[in-house]
Every structure is written in structure tokens, then in C-alpha cells.
Q: What sequence folds into this?
């Protein structure tokens, strides 16, 4: 059975088939609504069901609270239609220029930049170009049919290669392979680009970037793209880690701030040891933002990293710093272990 989905206050409509999620159907129709993990874990695709009946599917309780369901919210990556629907996602874009595709890549280099982080450079086949928005991610497609998602750490203007920042996950099958067995020239099959974490260039609002760990990768992609395009919006980057070694490209971020007056960089460390001799900001990275920007009502925020940081930033920025919900963009790094939980 096929139902029709209409997007409130727009002319956009698309069909959704039995067993198909609303997100899958929208993307198939060339309509891009916000999403990230596609597994019901991050909450990026949360929107309202204005009319119609749905099956909410399986999802993490933290991604959709019962009080939100009572207000009509659903996770469109998991939601399936049981009737014709009218929905209201946070944002709607046409995706004709960023359609995902599958392609083989070859491992060009592996650089260990921290005890638990490797920068992986993948070479795209000669004569091909991967079009994507800075900040988007790709899926590595493994032989057993599972996938692993990684943000692309290079700007789209860097043709020929894709840069991934891979953090070692305890017990992780793929990351364990990257750290212990992967060799140059190995072939990886990927699907890209994916996700809606990218800069809204139509805005002129000041930007606050908040990253934890390898959440720096997509923000690096965005900043490098803005520098290439000459975008001069004020930008403040907060990058958090447990210890200074976790800020594995600290020198690059420092260089951006030194060379560009519109970029500020604030590193934040939560668990420095005496031998680290850390004299900078300490504590939770999103709390540092709240100290410096008690009023975010005129800003855009782009947050990327571990789920607890992204969730805390969203909750506190909206409740305490007057950030409009529509101006918070996030990519929550959920691992296979997170999804299993």
C-alpha cells in the first residue's frame, strides 16, 4: 500500500510505500529533510506529524521523549505511514545536486595523529568527482553488509581525495582493523554524501562551532570551505577533549585564528593531568560556550561529536541561552555500540 505525504506550508508531496520510512521516501523523491544517523539514535530528523497515523518504529528513548510524542513529534528516519500524512520537518531542501552514490576508494595514507585517532586519506577513482556539502558524511560499506559512518574532514574543493578522522572504539571491528591491519592501497567501498550537517550559507548570522573529539572533522571541512569561498561571517570554534592530546589538530585551529580576524578558537580540556601542564579553559566544552555567549538568540550553532555533548548543548543552549531551535544544527557521532544499547 502506498500513502501520500505532504509537507506543511510547502507544495512538496511524495509517496511512501508500505514498510518504508518517511525519510527514505523523502530522499528517494529528491526532498531533503534533516537527518544524520538514520538509526533513531540522534534525533536530528525529529519533526511533527500534523495529520495522519504513523508507526513510530524503534528508536532510542533519549532521541524522542514521551512528552515530545504527545506533542506530535516523531523521528522520520524510523516513522512509517499508516495513512496519508501531513508533516512539518525542521527544514526542507531539494537534493538534486547532492544525490548519494556508491563508489570504490583506495587507501592512500594512514597518519596517526593521537594515540586513538588516525587520519585516513582515501583516493577517489581517476576521472571521478565527489560533490558534497562541507560537513556531510559517508558510509563505509563492509563485506558483511553493515556500515560505518564517518564525516568527511576535507573541503569539497579538495578534489581527488576524501579525508576521514577515525577514532579507535573499544571492541570496534572496523576501527580495530584501521588501527591494526589496514594497509595502503586497500579498497574501501563507500556511499556519499549523506546527512544534512552543513553550513547554511544563505544566513549572515555569527556562527558558534562546538566540537568534541573527532567531531572536529566536519567542522574542519566547513571552515576550510568558507575560507576557500571568502565567507567572512564571525566564527568561534570551541573544541573539547579530555586531555590536550585529544585536540589532534590544535596547531591548525590556532593557525586559522591567527591568520583570519573573523575566526576565534577556544580549546577546552575536561580531564587534564598534572603532566599535561594545561593552562587553558577547562570543563565541559558546551559550558564554555554558555559562559562566553549567555545570549545566542542571534547566532547559529553547529555542534558535532559524542551524543552526550550534542544532547547537552541542544538542551542547555535552547533553555538557557535563548538559541532558536531552528538555528541548532548537529551531527551526533553514534557508534555501533551506541546503537546496540
A:
Amino acid at each position: 500500500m502506498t500513502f501520500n505525504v505532504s509537507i506543511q506550508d510547502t507544495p512538496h508531496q511524495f509517496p511512501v510505500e508500505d514498510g518504508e520510512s518517511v525519510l527514505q521516501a523523502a530522499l528517494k523523491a529528491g526532498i531533503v529533510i534533516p537527518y544524520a544517523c538514520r538509526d533513531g539514535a540522534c534525533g536530528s530528523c525529529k519533526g511533527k506529524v500534523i495529520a495522519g497515523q504513523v508507526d513510530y518504529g524503534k528508536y532510542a528513548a533519549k532521541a524522542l521523549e514521551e512528552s515530545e510524542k504527545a506533542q506530535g513529534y516523531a523521528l522520520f528516519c524510523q516513522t512509517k505511514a499508516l495513512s496519508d500524512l501531513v508533516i512539518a520537518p525542521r527544514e526542507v531542501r531539494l537534493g538534486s545536486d547532492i544525490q548519494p552514490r556508491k563508489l570504490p576508494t583506495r587507501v592512500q595514507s594512514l597518519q596517526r595523529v593521537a594515540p586513538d585517532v588516525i587520519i585516513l586519506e582515501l583516493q577517489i577513482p581517476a576521472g571521478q568527482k565527489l560533490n558534497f556539502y562541507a560537513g556531510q558524511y559517508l558510509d563505509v560499506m563492509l563485506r558483511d553488509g553493515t556500515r560505518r559512518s564517518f564525516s568527511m574532514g576535507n573541503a569539497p574543493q579538495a578534489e581527488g581525495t576524501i579525508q576521514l578522522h577515525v577514532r579507535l572504539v573499544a571492541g570496534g571491528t572496523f576501527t580495530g582493523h584501521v588501527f591494526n591491519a589496514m594497509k595502503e592501497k586497500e579498497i574501501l567501498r563507500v556511499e556519499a554524501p549523506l546527512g544534512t550537517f552543513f553550513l547554511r550559507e544563505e544566513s549572515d548570522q555569527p556562527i558558534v562551532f562546538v566540537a568534541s573529539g573527532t567531531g572536529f572533522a566536519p567542522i574542519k571541512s566547513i571552515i576550510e570551505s568558507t575560507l576557500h569561498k571568502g565567507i567572512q561571517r564571525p566564527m568561534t570554534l570551541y573544541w573539547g577533549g579530555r586531555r590536550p592530546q585529544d585536540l589532534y589538530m590544535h596547531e591548525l585551529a590556532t593557525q586559522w585564528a591567527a591568520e583570519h580576524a573573523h575566526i576565534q578558537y577556544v580549546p577546552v580540556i575536561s580531564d587534564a593531568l598534572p603532566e599535561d601542564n594545561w593552562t587553558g579553559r577547562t570543563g565541559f566544552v558546551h559550558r564554555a560556550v554558555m559562559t562566553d555567549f549567555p545570549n545566542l538568540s542571534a547566532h547559529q550553532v553547529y555542534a558535532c561529536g559524542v551524543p552526550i555533548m550534542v544532547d547537552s548543548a541542544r538542551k542547555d543552549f535552547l533553555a538557557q541561552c535563548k538559541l532558536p531551535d531552528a538555528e541548532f544544527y548537529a551531527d551526533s557521532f553514534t557508534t555501533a555500540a551506541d546503537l546496540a544499547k
About this structure: DSSP finds eight helices and 21 strands in the chain. The helical segments are 22-28, 66-70, 173-180, 216-229, 250-259, 285-292, 307-320, 336-340. The radius of gyration is 20 Å. The chain has three domains: 2-94, 101-194, 207-340.
